[in-house]
Amino acid sequence: MSAPSPEPPAPEPPAPEPPAGEPPAAEAAVRAVDLHKTYTGPRGDVPAVRGVDLAVAPGEFFGLLGPNGAGKSTTIGMLTTLVVPTSGQARVCGLDVTRDAVAVKRRIGMVSQNNTLDNELTAVENLEFRGRYFGLGAKDARRRADELLEMFNLTDRRTGTPFELSGGQAKRLMICRALVHRPEVLFLDEPTAGLDPQTRVNLWEVLRELQAGGQTTLLTTHYMEEAEALCDRVAVVDHGRVLASGTVPELKSSAGADTVITVTYDGDVPEGVRKLSEREGIGKVEVTGAQVRVFARSPDGLLAELVAAGAAAGVGVTDASQLRPSLETVFLTLTGRDYRE
């Protein structure tokens, strides 16, 4: 009696098509579909990521923008194989991050928030060691290290140890190390956190050069100006979910207003002001304490009306502004204004 033939492996389910405006699943350098991560601890289950969908095109600079604890780092951890997803699909360079973790690691570069340089090695040794780890010969590893040190303006620090580098220099060296093996996708997790403004702007210039060279990059940040300065597209994340995504101009237009008028009174906001949201041409009215923010498509005369409403109610105006919506406006509208630890 012959043994039964083994059953063929079940075929992988096809990845769903992405929303309009995103690259097709087959062409995406990074693709996440309904990605979840739940941590289990003494206090029970803690959901960190709750169904994230992302698609990053080759050569795109994509930003995950969100407050502290939004789930950005956990998402990037899953995409870089450091965190095992609870459920959902994630592919990088067409490879499943769970089934093909080793192959994914060979195709990506990762720069974390914390300094992970080897403190016992010099700057050039950190790069040469990484090159040898990824299969470069000694001569090629040395040549690649010198090339990156020059590109990132670190040649004069080549024999210095990480202890002798400034915060900005150490961060640049970490990016160099992530690029040694010419990764298809570079992941940057809060790369400028803790840096002074001058160092941050200088690092942006380095990242722009990489972007101009066609490097696919996924960045997490909570700096609005960083997202505006670098990213082709942005996804706003909070409480483990993507709340909105698109180009920066698209997100700004999603505020539903051409102008945001902000007025701060020296007393309670007049009751009549709260009812402005019922008027045609006004998207919404936000009241926070003694301050009111009106999102208007037709702002003509509205600021004067808000001042007059205060005078009629016996309260004065201590501050007033009339501005076009900013990315910060969109961010705060989506994520709220509560303090985050």
Could you say what the CATH topology of the largest domain is called?
Answer: Rossmann fold
* SSE order, one letter for each helix or strand: EEEHEEHEHHHEHEHEEHEHEEHEH
- Low-confidence segments, ≥5 residues, pLDDT <50? none
Secondary structural class: alpha/beta
Any idea what the CATH superfamily of the largest domain is called? Answer: P-loop containing nucleotide triphosphate hydrolases
The CATH architecture of the largest domain comes to 3-Layer(aba) Sandwich
Q: Largest sheet, described in full?
A: 6 strands, mixed
Counted up, domains total 2
Cα(first) to Cα(last) distance is 68 Å
Helix content: 25-40%
Question: What can you tell me about this protein's structure?
Answer:
- With 341 residues, this protein is an alpha/beta fold.
- It folds into two domains: 30-38 and 46-248, Rossmann fold, CATH 3.40.50.300; 258-324, Alpha-Beta Plaits.
- It is built from eleven helices and 14 strands.
- Helix 3 crosses helix 4 (138-151) and helix 3 (123-133) runs parallel beside helix 5.
- The relative contact order is 0.12.
